[in-house]
């Protein structure tokens, strides 16, 4: 089903607010996917990118370091990678020689 006009947003669930409040700064939810879990429930899976502003005031990202799952019906966060796992995965990327890349404006 396609709507003839863009719908009006009446509530923003602000995943960035969730990440900042529960995991700290430097994380951006991205690349949403609708998935079915092994229990038959549908969820929205989002990757978590390590992001920051560089010395030239550009939005940069190191890469995907975790995942976030949101219940489709209640829109509540079902699972989010732990702070410890996020930090560990940042270190893995850095130790592998991965260099931060510019992220497109307006995409996040």
Query: How many separate domains make up the residues?
Result: 1
Structural class assignment: alpha+beta
Total number of strands? 5
- Global outline: globular
Instruction: Bin the strand percentage.
Output: 35-45%
**Major sheet characteristics:** 5 strands, antiparallel
Low-confidence stretches: none
Share of residues in helices: 10-25%
N-end to C-end Cα span:
26 Å
Estimated radius of gyration: 16 Å
Count of alpha and pi helical runs: 2
Name the helix and strand elements from N-terminus to C-terminus, one letter apiece: HEEEEHE
Instruction: Compute the average pLDDT.
Output: 90
Layout of strands and helices, then pairs:
Elements: H1 15-23, E1 27-36, E2 42-53, E3 59-71, E4 77-80, H2 83-95, E5 101-102
Antiparallel strand pairs: 1-2, 2-3, 3-4, 3-5
Architecture overview:
The protein is α+β, with helices and mostly antiparallel strands. The chain has one domain (15-96). Helices cover 20% and strands 38% of the residues. It is built from two helices and five strands; from the N terminus they run H-E-E-E-E-H-E. Strands 1, 2, 3, 4 and 5 form a five-stranded antiparallel sheet that branches. The mean pLDDT is 90.
Q: What's this model, at a glance?
A:
This protein has helices at 15-23, 83-95; strands at 27-36, 42-53, 59-71, 77-80, 101-102. The protein is α+β, with helices and mostly antiparallel strands and 108 residues long.
Which key terms come to mind for this protein?
108 residues, alpha+beta, five-stranded antiparallel beta sheet, 2 helices, globular
């Amino acid at each position: 089903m396609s709507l003839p006009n863009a719908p009006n947003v009446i509530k923003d669930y602000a995943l960035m607010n969730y990440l900042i409040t529960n995991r700290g700064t430097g994380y951006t939810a991205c690349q949403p996917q609708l998935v079915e879990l092994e229990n038959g429930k549908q969820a929205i899976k989002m990757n978590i990118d390590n992001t920051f502003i560089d010395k030239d005031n550009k939005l940069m990202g190191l890469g995907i370091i975790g995942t976030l799952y949101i219940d489709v019906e209640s829109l509540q966060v079902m699972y989010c990678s732990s702070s410890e796992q996020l930090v560990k995965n940042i270190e893995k990327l850095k130790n592998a020689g991965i260099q931060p890349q510019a992220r497109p404006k307006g995409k996040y």
